[in-house]
C-alpha cells in the first residue's frame, strides 16, 4: 500500500517527495501545537509557497506553478500527512487563486495572483451563509450597483481564514432569485463596511481561523467582479469541482498517516503475551484499511485526470471521489484510533487529531448528501 508512486511520472514523484519532506520536517513537528494553541501558521505556509504550493494549478505567467489537477492531488495528499488542517486551508487558498486566474481578466490576474501564489496575501472563499448551506443558490448577500461601485450587504458563515486573510472571493446577488442572479466579487481586506464575527471554536481544523464575514454597505469597485453579472454561481461551482478533489486528497493523506501509525503501534504494543501484530483480527483490519486507502486514492486520481481533461463525467467523478473518499478515509482514521486503544484518545498521540481534522471533510465543499444528489441527478438525466 505504501507504494504511493504507482503510475506517477518521474516529475510527479519528485514533487511528491518534496511535499512529503516538507510535511515531515516543517508541519508534523508543529501539528499538535498549531491545533491546541489555534495558531494560523503563516510563515510555514509562505515556506510552502516558496516550493510552488501557493498557486499549484495557477498559470505561470502570474506566478503559479502551472501543474495539473493530478499533480495537485499528489501534493495535497503528501502535505496532509504533516497537518491536515493547514493543508486544507492551503487547498482553499489555491482554489481561490485558480478562480481569479481562470475567470479574471488580465488586470485582475496581474493584480491579485502573484501575491496569492507567494502567499504574501491569503485568500478566503465566501459562498456559505447562515441561512444557505447546501441550498447555496438561495444566498441572500446583495450587491447593488451604484455607478462604478457595488454596495454589498449581508453575511457569510464558516469562512476559512476569515479575518486573517486579505482577499475574499464573494458570491453575492446582483440579480433575481436562484443561481442566475449570482455574481462573483473580489473584496479586499480593509474595505470600509467589511467586518468579521467571533472566531469559531471548532472540533478540528484549528490551525485555520473560521469566522463570519459581514458586509454593511461595503463598497467594492465594479472592476473587482470576476466574469459577467450572473456568472458567479457557475464560477463558484467550477471552483468547487477542484476543491472537492483537493479535500478528498487531504483525507487520503490523513488515512495514509493513520495506517502507518496503526501499523507501528501493532508492532510494539503487547497484550496476552505477544504483540498485537500477531492478532489475525487486527492483521485483517489493517489489510482492509490499506485496501480501502488504495481504492480511494485511485478514485481521486481518476477524478483529477477527468477534470484536467474536461471529460463529460468529470463533475460526477469529482462528486464520487469527495463522497467515497472522505467517508472511507474517516473510517480508516477512526479504526486506527480504535487500534491504539486508550492511547488513541490522548492528545499526545496524533491519531485523534487526524480523526478530528478530517471529520469536517464529509460536510464542507458540498456535504456528502449533496454529492449523492449531484451523482444521482447526473445518472438520471443521462440520455
TrEMBL record:
Active site: 365 (proton acceptor)
PANTHER family: ISOBUTYRYL-COA DEHYDROGENASE (PTHR43831), ISOBUTYRYL-COA DEHYDROGENASE, MITOCHONDRIAL (PTHR43831:SF1)
Recorded metabolic or biological pathway in which this protein acts: Amino-acid degradation; L-valine degradation
Function: Isobutyryl-CoA dehydrogenase which catalyzes the conversion of 2-methylpropanoyl-CoA to (2E)-2-methylpropenoyl-CoA in the valine catabolic pathway. To a lesser extent, also able to catalyze the oxidation of (2S)-2-methylbutanoyl-CoA.
Enzyme Commission number: 1.3.8.5
GO-annotated molecular function: flavin adenine dinucleotide binding; short-chain 2-methyl fatty acyl-CoA dehydrogenase activity
UniProt keyword Oxidoreductase present: yes
Cofactor: FAD
Protein name: Isobutyryl-CoA dehydrogenase, mitochondrial
Transmembrane segments: none
Record-linked CDD domains: IBD (cd01162)
Domain spans labelled Acyl-CoA dehydrogenase/oxidase C-terminal: 230-380
Catalytic activity: propanoyl-CoA + oxidized [electron-transfer flavoprotein] + H(+) = acryloyl-CoA + reduced [electron-transfer flavoprotein]; (2S)-2-methylbutanoyl-CoA + oxidized [electron-transfer flavoprotein] + H(+) = (2E)-2-methylbut-2-enoyl-CoA + reduced [electron-transfer flavoprotein]; 2-methylpropanoyl-CoA + oxidized [electron-transfer flavoprotein] + H(+) = 2-methylpropenoyl-CoA + reduced [electron-transfer flavoprotein]
EC primary class: oxidoreductase
A Pfam family reported for this protein in Swiss-Prot or TrEMBL: Acyl-CoA_dh_N
Amino acid at each position: 500500500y505504501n507504494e504511493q508512486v504507482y503510475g506517477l511520472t518521474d516529475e510527479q514523484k519528485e514533487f511528491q517527495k518534496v511535499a512529503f519532506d516538507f510535511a515531515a520536517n516543517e508541519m508534523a513537528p508543529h501539528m499538535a501545537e498549531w491545533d491546541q494553541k489555534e495558531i494560523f501558521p503563516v510563515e510555514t505556509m509562505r515556506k510552502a509557497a516558496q516550493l510552488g504550493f501557493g498557486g499549484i494549478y495557477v498559470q505561470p505567467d502570474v506566478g503559479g506553478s502551472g501543474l495539473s489537477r493530478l499533480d495537485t492531488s499528489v501534493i495535497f495528499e503528501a502535505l496532509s500527512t504533516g497537518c491536515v488542517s493547514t493543508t486544507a486551508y492551503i487547498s482553499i487558498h489555491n482554489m481561490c487563486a485558480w478562480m481569479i486566474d481562470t475567470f479574471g481578466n488580465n488586470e485582475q490576474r496581474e493584480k491579485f495572483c502573484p501575491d496569492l501564489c507567494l502567499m504574501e496575501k491569503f485568500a478566503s472563499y465566501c459562498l456559505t451563509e447562515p441561512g444557505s448551506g447546501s441550498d447555496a443558490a438561495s444566498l441572500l448577500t446583495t450587491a447593488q450597483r451604484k455607478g462604478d461601485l457595488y454596495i454589498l450587504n449581508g453575511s457569510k458563515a464558516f469562512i476559512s481564514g476569515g479575518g486573517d486573510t486579505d482577499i475574499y472571493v464573494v458570491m453575492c446577488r446582483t440579480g433575481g432569485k436562484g443561481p442566475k442572479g449570482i455574481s462573483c466579487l473580489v473584496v479586499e481586506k480593509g474595505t470600509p463596511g467589511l467586518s468579521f464575527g467571533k472566531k469559531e471554536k471548532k472540533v478540528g481544523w484549528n490551525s485555520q481561523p473560521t469566522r463570519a464575514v459581514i458586509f454593511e454597505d461595503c463598497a467594492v469597485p465594479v472592476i473587482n467582479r470576476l466574469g459577467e453579472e450572473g456568472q458567479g454561481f457557475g464560477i463558484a461551482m467550477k471552483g468547487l469541482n477542484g476543491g472537492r478533489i483537493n479535500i478528498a486528497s487531504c483525507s487520503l493523506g490523513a488515512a495514509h498517516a493513520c495506517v502507518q501509525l496503526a501499523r507501528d503501534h501493532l508492532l510494539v504494543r503487547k497484550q496476552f503475551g505477544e504483540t498485537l501484530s500477531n492478532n489475525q483480527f487486527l492483521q485483517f483490519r489493517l489489510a482492509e484499511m490499506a485496501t480501502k486507502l488504495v481504492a480511494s486514492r485511485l478514485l481521486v486520481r481518476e477524478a483529477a485526470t477527468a477534470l484536467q481533461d474536461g471529460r463529460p463525467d468529470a463533475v460526477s467523478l469529482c462528486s464520487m471521489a469527495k463522497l467515497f473518499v472522505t467517508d472511507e478515509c474517516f473510517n480508516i482514521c477512526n479504526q486506527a484510533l480504535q487500534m491504539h486503544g486508550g492511547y488513541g484518545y490522548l492528545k499526545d498521540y496524533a491519531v485523534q487529531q487526524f480523526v478530528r481534522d478530517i471529520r469536517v471533510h464529509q460536510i464542507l465543499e458540498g456535504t456528502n448528501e449533496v454529492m449523492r444528489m449531484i451523482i444521482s441527478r447526473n445518472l438520471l438525466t443521462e440520455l
